[in-house]
Amino acid sequence: MSLVTHLKKLFRTKPLVGHQDTDLKRTLSGFDLTLLGIGAIIGAGIFVLTGIVAATQAGPGIIFSFILAGLACVFTALAYAELSTSIGGCGSAYGYAYAGFGEFIAWIIGWDLLLEYGVIVSAVAVGWSGYFNNVLTALDLELHISLAKNIFEGGFINISAVVIVLVISCLLAVGVKESKHFNSAMVFIKLITIAVFIGIALFNVNPSNWQPFIPFGWLGVVEGAALIFFSYIGFDAISTAAEETRDPQRDLPRGILGSLVVCTLIYMLVGGLLTGIAPYTSLNVNSPVSAALLNLGYDFAGGLVAAGAIAGLSTVLLVMFYGLTRIFLAMSRDGLVPSRFALVNKKTHTPVRIIVIFGIVIAVISGFAPMKAIAELANIGTLMAFTIVCAGVLVMRYTHPNLHRPFKVAFSPWIPLLGIIFCVYLMLNLPVETWIRFGIWMAIGAVLYFIYGFYHSRLATGVAPNPDEARIDDAP
Ligand code: ALA
């Protein structure tokens, strides 16, 4: 077989499902989508990374970092909305890359998303442990430093982070899933928690804490944006609900932009107030939001915020870990990874093998790796996926000009182009070590594809999926 024939195979595509060919019920309104977005978005970013970024990169200028990172997300979010409504399937950048751009790009995105979701779960688990350990301390049950912190922070293992990952794995293995009502309740708790903080902080600002406002210069603000970008990850979950949306043309942009605008405003307010009530240099701690309140003498409110953060972060863990298993299932069903990993347990009806394997890997990362390094890896993976999605809009407009698009990005090609520029700019401001780690992961992925996926994919073999595999009709 000639080289050209082989190369062509890299671009074999799955048929476009199209937005209209769905059996899912259209029940979600723009408001529901906004709640869905807020539920997935607000997490360790605002509760933990805000402190790290303010203390080490941006100072009070963190509010500009939030604007910069938010803009990258808005442009990309619109691109997500167009692809998810026009290409169909059940969403996820992986799903529409397979239909739109061919198998190799789909594999690259899928492999990238596995990294992204895996390290997000690790980072959020580390964030969760910071608040949890504080509660233990408040109850006089303080862990020994060797069990409370990882080696980089002067301890040995972050045992709380390990335990929460294992608990979430067990919940997923027995089939716990998030529901619309549970999500709404959690969004409510998170917003109340943040409202308590804002309500108290508003009356305790010391303006001298805002001097200097940008202590590390513009570079600090931009590098801070590259890290704090983590706090926005999750809005892409909204586009995966495109097929359950009442009127995608109207509700999708409302839901996506609505949740992004709400979160950006909340983030700027929290970032501004946090650096107003405490010197930015004091914020490089595991639970900055509640620690700042405790330092002001608000013990009850500090405890309340810690409890809210623990609850809020637990749901982000559940959603992201669930998303990870769905992506793996989708790839397995397409034959790109061996299907024996995706077999469903007869009792629990969940893909226990994948959950156990990923659970162990993620628990190890959470126990030993520093939060900042993990979040940066999550960011580079996400920004890469976002860049491909923005580029995807431009490619699809060219290759499929007449495709039915229930939602169309306005001002194309400018909006997708701006999305690409912002995402690449943020990626370039991440540390070299992050690029190296990411490069190694992607190189491993490329090798695996040519060893396995290229020959075993359903498109290559034409073999039907294994009926014992988990259903993926709710894949992200
Ligand atoms: N945006 C999510 C968080 O901040 C991932 O935890």
Description:
The protein is an all-alpha fold and 476 residues long. It has one domain (28-461): Amino acid/polyamine transporter I (Up-down Bundle), CATH 1.20.1740.10. The chain contains 19 helices and no strands. α2 crosses α9 and α6 (103-138) packs across α18. The structure holds alanine.
- What is the count of helical runs? 19
Strand content: under 5%
CATH architecture annotation: Up-down Bundle
Poorly predicted regions are: 470-476
In CATH terms, what is the fold-level topology?
Amino acid/polyamine transporter I
The named CATH superfamily? Amino acid/polyamine transporter I
Count of individual domains: 1
Let me know the average pLDDT: 86
Q: Which compounds are bound in this model?
A: alanine
Radius of gyration (Å): 22 Å
Strands, count:
0
Shape: globular
Described by strand count, sense and barrel closure, the largest sheet is:
none
Q: State the distance separating the first and last CA atoms.
A: 36 Å
Overall helicity: 55-70%
Order of helices and strands: HHHHHHHHHHHHHHHHHHH
The CATH class is Mainly Alpha
Structural class: mainly alpha
